[in-house]
Design goal:
This protein is an alpha/beta fold. It contains 12 helices and 20 strands. The strands form 5 sheets. Strands 1, 2, 3, 4, 5, 6, 7 and 20 form an 8-stranded mixed beta sheet that branches. Strands 9-16-10-11-12 form a 5-stranded parallel beta sheet. A 3-stranded antiparallel beta sheet has the order 13-14-15, with no helix packed on it. Helix 1 crosses helix 12. The longest helix is centred in the last third of the chain and has 17 residues. It is globular, with a radius of gyration of 23 Å. The two termini are 39 Å apart. 40% of the residues are buried.
Length: 455
């Protein structure tokens, strides 16, 4: 029998079923870096308010614990953004949630300074994010999926399902909903995931679960940073195996991390992008796509090329690059994967038996349209399948108050930074200011035209 309950406030343990009078002010769906930054902004705003004026908020996340691309925490891989673009520094550099304070609490501040780098390892930054999540006092329910947002009795009712207990259904009442949509892995059309065929975001877990490696061979599909990192990791970790890399380009393309190009990630660039005409928006995306997408750090490209060249001089090839190729056929069996790699210039094909095929083929934003219930008319909220978003990140709605916000996944309207970590601190401030009318930080302001929804 399905258990169904309505939770409307106060109690820290969302899954307990206890509730207080009234609804929460903010329900955050998803608890990745974007909504984690928002949670920090809420707590820091509350710290400046009287007790009777503080916001109530809670967050839910489908993961069973906090995690950020756990399957790609490869040894030695570094962040591609400065540590100063952490959860708070661009908004409130004096916050106790800065990466520098994390280093201080871990006793590593001086050691990190001696590295003379702005780019911590991905594993250390994951440690920072986990540390920040553990310090949040607002209630967070892991293992919980939001399935539907409805409008009833002058408030949103969000239906939640436990991923641990399918019969557990919870309805949460909220004045505002902030969706941190995150991203979903993309596999090429026709590719069916399995024990030996998987997306790179699951790499470490899936490698640990491989039942056997009879062929001594891996395939990596993709041409971006993750694909190159996976190829290097497999080449290092399995010295008895060949690593085959297949991509549609002639070679890996270097990412553009030059200072002028990086200005596309500045907080001010969001205003410039949002107010641009559609033609200019597309031009900017085309011009600067390789600042982050389908591009590889130049040093990693050189490293892979040196490996391949060195092996050619010794006559022992373990890193084999199949350029200008695509996957023609792939079938998974109990002891391996049979894959045919086709030359896109019709110059033949190669069939391989591999132990695993790893697809580093990117992500797409999660679908938010499917979350809107029958009581919310979403026909005017999407155009061409993309959400129509105001400058302050609220979803355009008709017939109900515009109190649903997208905290990420708005590349088409707000630019390249919307899907990355670069702007999470300022975006959280923008959203919270739109909700409360009060700036939660000391740094950034929105254009005067931005509407607010006073408490």
């Amino acid at each position: 029998m399905t258990k169904d309950k309505l939770i409307t406030g106060g109690d820290r343990r969302l899954e307990s079923g206890d509730c207080a009078d009234g609804e929460v002010d903010i329900l955050g769906i998803g608890f990745g870096p974007s909504n984690l930054s928002l949670a920090i902004a809420i707590e820091e705003l509350n710290a400046r308010r009287r007790a009777d004026q503080r916001l109530t908020a809670r967050f839910v996340d489908v993961q069973r614990r906090f995690g950020w691309h756990d399957g790609m925490l490869l040894p030695g891989t570094t962040m591609q953004i400065s540590f100063l673009k952490d959860l708070v520094s661009l908004r409130t550099p004096t916050s106790s949630f800065t990466f520098l304070n994390y280093l201080h609490e871990q006793g590593r501040a001086s050691d990190f300074i001696n590295l003379k780098t702005f780019f911590p390892t991905r594993r250390e930054f994951h440690g920072y994010l986990s540390w920040a999540a553990s310090r949040i006092d607002l209630p967070v329910s892991y293992g919980t999926r939001a399935t539907c947002i409805d409008w009833r009795d002058e408030r949103f009712e969000v239906t939640l399902e436990s991923v641990l207990e399918r019969s557990e259904v919870t309805r949460v009442a909220a004045r505002h909903v902030v969706i941190g949509p995150g991203s979903r892995p993309v596999l090429p059309e026709g590719i069916v995931p399995g024990a030996r065929v998987f997306h790179n975001h699951q790499l470490l877990n899936r490698l640990a679960e491989l039942p056997s490696r009879p062929h001594g061979r891996f395939l990596v599909v993709g041409s971006g940073q993750s694909a190159a990192e996976v190829a290097a990791y497999l080449h290092d970790s399995y010295p008895d195996a060949e690593v085959h890399a297949s991509f549609r380009r002639y070679g890996y393309t270097p990412s553009d991390d030059t200072p002028y190009a990086n200005r596309i990630f500045d907080p001010e660039a969001v205003d410039e992008f949002y107010t641009a005409q559609p033609e200019l928006k597309q031009q900017l995306l085309d011009y600067h796509w390789q600042t982050n997408y389908s591009a590889v750090d130049a040093d990693l490209i050189k490293d892979l090329y040196r490996r391949e060249y060195d092996e050619s001089t010794r006559g022992v090839r373990r890193l084999i690059v199949h350029r200008v190729t695509g996957i023609e056929r792939l079938s998974e069996g109990s002891d391996g994967v049979t894959v045919t790699i086709r030359d896109l210039g019709n110059r033949g094909s190669t069939t391989l038996e591999v132990d695993a095929a790893v697809f580093a083929t990117g992500f797409r934003p999660a679908d938010t349209r499917s979350m809107l219930g029958s009581s919310i008319d979403g026909s005017s909220s999407f155009e061409g399948g993309l959400p129509i978003i105001e400058r302050d990140y609220r979803l355009r709605l008709r017939g109900v108050p515009e109190r649903i916000f997208l905290n990420g996944g708005v590349l088409h309207s707000h630019g390249l930074t919307s899907s990355l970590l670069s702007n999470v601190a300022i975006r959280a401030a923008d959203i919270l200011r739109a909700i409360t009318g009060e700036q939660p930080a000391t740094r950034q302001r929105l254009p005067a035209a931005v509407r607010t929804d006073p408490r």
